[in-house]
């Protein structure tokens, strides 16, 4: 449980903020139970099928990048994962965050690729730094375009046999014929017009609000990719005259000494913290156990 003093301070900063910039990473989804990306849970085993045992792979993240899988096997994992993202429930942490931000001037920047934020918040308030599983791009890429994949994912999943998508059905670029690729961070990730339009919207929000009381609310951001959210939030807190930085992360709630007086670190579960901020019961929420957490080099 977060101390009463910290909860009251964070609630005060939320109430008095002229603008709130939420930085959401996979800790947000992990707190809602979506841990198959990094853990060998029931969801991962269902998505990977017999490939988990065949290649001794223990989470979807590793399966996505493992070079031993055939193209058809890799696409089976991709398709099942994407279908799950379309069909799974909306995480409780996202619902609570939406309630907390209701009526506020806010913007969300996220490294998540699971589209959970889009179930709750308008797209005009979100920037995806690392893409979105619901889109495909050319693997080359030969052109500056991404494609909604909902319909293709649904029917292609039904063609998977023995944990393999038939090679003739592997999605291909409509222009050059090269295999398609999920529009998510990888060595082929397309940072084109779509990407830059979203980044401009984020930068415009920052520019328009930088002189006011800006709360940088960092939720579940760890040390895997600190350059996208954590480090910029710290730097802007240092530079903006009335900014305040709040980080919620059970393992990586870090605050540099340079902004210590303008910051709050909460080393607790996001689900618990949001419930406390809303004055809701935390009964039934499993306590965070650092020994059971993800690999620290990848956390969130």
Automatic annotation (TrEMBL):
It comes from Candidatus Limisoma faecipullorum. The keyword NAD applies. This is NAD-dependent protein deacetylase. GO terms for molecular function: metal ion binding; transferase activity. Zn(2+) binds at residues 138, 142, 173, 176. Keywords: Metal-binding, NAD, Transferase, Zinc. Residues 1-281 form the Deacetylase sirtuin-type domain.
């Amino acid at each position: 449980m977060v101390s009463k003093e910290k909860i009251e301070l964070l609630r005060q900063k939320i109430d008095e903020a002229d603008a709130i910039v939420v930085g959401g990473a996979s800790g947000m989804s992990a707190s809602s139970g979506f841990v198959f990306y990094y853990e060998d849970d029931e969801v991962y085993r269902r998505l990977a099928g017999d490939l988990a045992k065949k290649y001794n792979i223990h989470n979807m993240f590793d399966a996505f990048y493992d070079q031993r899988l055939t193209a058809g096997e890799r696409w089976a994992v991709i398709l099942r994962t994407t279908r799950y993202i379309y069909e799974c429930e909306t995480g409780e942490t996202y619902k609570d965050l939406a309630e907390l931000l209701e009526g506020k001037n806010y913007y969300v920047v996220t490294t998540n690729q699971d589209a959970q934020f889009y179930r709750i918040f308008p797209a005009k308030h979100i920037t995806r730094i690392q893409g979105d599983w619901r889109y495909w791009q050319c693997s080359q890429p030969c052109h500056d375009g991404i494609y909604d994949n909902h319909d293709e994912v649904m029917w292609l999943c039904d063609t998977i046999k023995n944990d393999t998508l038939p090679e003739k059905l592997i999605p291909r670029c409509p222009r050059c014929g090269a295999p398609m690729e999920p529009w998510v961070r990888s060595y082929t990730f397309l940072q084109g017009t779509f990407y830059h339009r979203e980044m401009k919207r984020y930068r415009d929000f920052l520019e328009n609000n930088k002189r006011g009381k800006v709360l940088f609310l960092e939720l579940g951001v760890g040390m895997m990719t600190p350059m996208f959210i954590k480090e910029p939030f710290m730097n802007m807190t240092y530079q903006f005259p009335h900014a305040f930085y709040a980080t919620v992360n059970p393992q990586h709630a870090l605050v540099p000494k340079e902004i210590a007086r303008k910051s709050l670190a909460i080393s607790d579960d996001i689900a618990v913290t949001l419930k406390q901020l809303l004055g809701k019961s935390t009964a039934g929420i499993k306590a965070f156990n650092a020994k059971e957490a993800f690999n620290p080099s990848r956390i969130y």
